[in-house]
């Protein structure tokens, strides 16, 4: 085990007095803001662990922008809120903005206002499009604002990094599951989505089609149906899809529609149809347990919200960077009898606390201010 880093070590490294280092790290007494930041950064690099909360010489302003009105986004918000509470003692001012789904118009209006308002230091955003918000992200970058994308990426922009699922790989995983359960059975696989142009939905469908084509599987995966809610999903499956000759599978490429699909198939008899759902909630766990939905692909919504802010704050305060500009959370296939919404969500929260605890012991990362999460 290495020698414990002390205030004396930091002072010697920077050729300043022990008293100056003490004032800088405690926030008590006058220290030049630039020198204070230099001392804090070097303390982190050396592995020094703060015993208290370091007050920032200049408070940071961080904005979070993502959709609302769905259980999936509620889980994202829980992760965001836990991260906000963790870093609030540092004097960081957080603002949260929500839009109705992946609404490009609403996001544009909000970003336009923010861009021409008071300076913000960090922005965490779920872009409603892969490229059409690049202007705003790049403009913020020029102004000194660091942008993190999560759930949906903007890979051609000046965003610092992305946190979330790899949509294409999730679609390919769906293809593997269909191959496992259907084998070489010829038929039609429908993809149900709430928004045909939503980036993450498009990428999952594209991943599925790429996998089927590359493997030469006898599935027609060209059919994509847009449904706006559970009732419409129920009606479309019962009145249209079940009448389709050769129907062998349904891929629900979003969190919305799983209940409707499950209810329609339960009432009509599953008839050998393989269903791969998306995400996991108590509302449709029964269909998973009964084998009506064969598998759900889980993408850790809580961690998407939580980690995007943790990484952004670390970057703003201590220059933290990732080894790669994309941090892909694994997509987990959950089959009947293997897990539950409660257990995977407990795992997410446990992992978040472990990550924060480890961050307090690692150079160039942020420790948990004020103790453990509420």
How would you describe what is shown here?
Residues 359-374 have low confidence and may be disordered. The longest helix is centred in the last third of the chain and has 19 residues, at 341-359. This protein is α/β, with parallel strands linked by helices and 374 residues long. The chain has helices at residues 7-14, 18-26, 33-46, 71-87, 104-115, 134-142, 167-182, 199-215, 230-239, 258-268, 282-289, 301-318, 341-359, and strands spanning 61-68, 93-100, 122-125, 146-150, 161-164, 187-193, 219-220, 224-226, 247-252, 274-278, 295-298, 326-328, 332-335. It has three domains: 1-58, 434 Repressor (Amino-terminal Domain) (Orthogonal Bundle), CATH 1.10.260; 61-164 and 301-329 and 339-359, Response regulator (Rossmann fold, 3-Layer(aba) Sandwich); 167-298, Rossmann fold (3-Layer(aba) Sandwich). Helix content is 45%, strand content 17%. Strand 1, helix 4 and strand 2 form a beta-alpha-beta unit. Helix 12 (301-318) packs parallel to helix 13. Keywords: DNA-binding, Transcription, Transcription regulation.
């Amino acid at each position: 085990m290495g020698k414990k880093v002390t205030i004396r070590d930091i002072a010697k490294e920077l050729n300043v007095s022990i008293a100056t280092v003490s004032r800088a790290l405690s926030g008590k007494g006058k220290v030049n803001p630039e020198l204070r930041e230099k001392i804090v950064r070097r303390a982190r690099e050396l592995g020094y662990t703060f015993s208290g909360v370091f007050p920032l010489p200049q408070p940071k302003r961080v904005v979070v922008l993502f959709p609302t009105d769905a259980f999936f986004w509620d889980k994202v918000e829980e992760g965001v809120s836990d991260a906000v509470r963790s870093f609030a003692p540092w004097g960081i001012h957080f603002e949260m903005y929500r839009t109705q789904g992946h609404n490009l118009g609403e996001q544009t209006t909000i970003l336009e206002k923010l861009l021409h308002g008071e300076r913000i230091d960090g922005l965490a955003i779920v872009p409603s499009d892969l490229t059409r918000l690049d202007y705003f992200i790049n403009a913020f970058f020029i102004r000194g604002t660091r942008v993190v994308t999560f759930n949906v990426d903007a890979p051609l922009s000046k965003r610092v990094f992305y946190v979330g699922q790899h949509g294409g790989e999730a679609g390919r995983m769906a293809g593997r599951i269909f191959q496992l359960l259907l084998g070489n059975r010829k038929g039609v696989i429908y993809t149900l989505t709430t928004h045909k142009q939503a980036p993450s939905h498009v990428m999952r469908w594209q991943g599925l089609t790429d996998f089927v084509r590359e493997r030469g599987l006898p599935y027609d995966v060209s059919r994509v149906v847009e449904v706006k809610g559970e009732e419409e999903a129920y009606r479309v499956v019962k009145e249209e899809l079940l009448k389709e000759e050769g129907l062998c599978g349904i891929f629900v490429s979003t969190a919305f529609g799983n209940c409707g699909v499950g209810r329609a198939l339960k009432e009509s008899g599953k008839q050998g149809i393989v269903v791969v759902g998306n995400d996991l909630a108590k509302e449709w766990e029964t269909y998973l347990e009964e084998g009506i939905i064969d598998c759900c692909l889980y993408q850790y919504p809580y961690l998407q919200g939580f980690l995007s802010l943790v990484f952004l704050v670390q970057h703003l305060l201590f220059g933290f960077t990732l080894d790669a500009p994309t941090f892909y959370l694994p997509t987990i296939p959950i089959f009947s009898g293997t897990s539950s919404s409660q257990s995977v969500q407990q795992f997410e929260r446990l992992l978040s606390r472990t990550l924060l605890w480890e961050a307090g012991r690692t150079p160039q990362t942020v420790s948990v201010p004020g103790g453990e999460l509420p």
